């Protein structure tokens, strides 16, 4: 993504565009699925994901100016670069928005999520979120156990989750194993 100071809700593509593969995101610890958002209440694939990853808590969030008090301030807070001590799991049911994550060279990668996209950001990855110009998204938020909403704004190099993230995803050395 480009580093311009324009409206955060714009795509911010580099010129020329630089596309990032799902494999590259996986190397950063970002996990992605595409599901059917119209069937989320009875989706067997979603149930398998929740069961296998231990996501026991779920709620829904409608994020738009009409439904969120102090909308502009909330959006500003979400867009402040931060980490969490736990994974951040979001399933987009309606609308769209952007998750920005830092790559291994500390550059931003912009991930556009739309209805059906389920994304998991690992604990300790620097990231931020904003809506796009549609100004609407309905998200399912998933957690292991009780929800934890704590964001730790950058810098957080001494936070245990950040140290673990750096160890697991940015300091990989050796020969990669073939996937099976």
From TrEMBL:
Provide the transmembrane region boundaries: none
- Pfam families reported for this sequence: ARD (PF03079)
User: Which SUPFAM superfamilies is this protein grouped with?
Assistant: RmlC-like cupins
EC top class, in one word? oxidoreductase
Q: So where does Ni(2+) get bound?
A: 82, 84, 88, 127
User: Which compartment or compartments is the protein found in?
Assistant: Cell membrane; Cytoplasm; Nucleus
EC numbers: 1.13.11.54, 1.13.11.53
Pathway involvement of the protein, from the record: Amino-acid biosynthesis; L-methionine biosynthesis via salvage pathway; L-methionine from S-methyl-5-thio-alpha-D-ribose 1-phosphate: step 5/6
Q: Where along this sequence does the record place binding of Fe(2+)?
A: 82, 84, 88, 127
Q: What does this protein do?
A: Catalyzes 2 different reactions between oxygen and the acireductone 1,2-dihydroxy-3-keto-5-methylthiopentene (DHK-MTPene) depending upon the metal bound in the active site. Fe-containing acireductone dioxygenase (Fe-ARD) produces formate and 2-keto-4-methylthiobutyrate (KMTB), the alpha-ketoacid precursor of methionine in the methionine recycle pathway. Ni-containing acireductone dioxygenase (Ni-ARD) produces methylthiopropionate, carbon monoxide and formate, and does not lie on the methionine recycle pathway.
> What's this protein's family per the entry?
Belongs to the acireductone dioxygenase (ARD) family.
Which HAMAP family does the entry mention? Answer: Salvage_MtnD_euk (MF_03154)
Name recorded for this polypeptide: Acireductone dioxygenase
């Amino acid at each position: 993504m480009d580093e311009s100071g324009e409206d955060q809700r714009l795509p911010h593509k580099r010129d020329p565009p630089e596309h990032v593969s799902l494999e590259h995101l996986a190397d950063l610890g970002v996990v992605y699925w595409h599901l059917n958002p119209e069937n989320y209440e009875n989706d067997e694939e979603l149930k398998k994901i929740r069961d296998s990853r231990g996501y026991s808590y779920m709620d829904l969030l409608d994020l738009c100016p009409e439904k969120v008090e102090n909308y502009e301030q909330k959006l500003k807070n979400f867009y402040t670069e931060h980490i969490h001590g736990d994974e951040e799991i979001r399933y987009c049911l309606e609308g769209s928005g952007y998750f920005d994550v830092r790559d291994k060279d500390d550059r931003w990668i912009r991930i556009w999520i739309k209805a059906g996209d389920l994304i998991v950001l690992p604990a300790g990855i620097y990231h931020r979120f904003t809506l796009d110009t549609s100004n609407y998204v309905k998200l399912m938020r998933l957690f292991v156990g009780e929800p934890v909403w704590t964001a730790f704004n950058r810098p957080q190099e001494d936070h245990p989750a950040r140290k673990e993230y750096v160890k697991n995803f940015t300091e990989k050395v050796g020969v990669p194993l073939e996937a099976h």
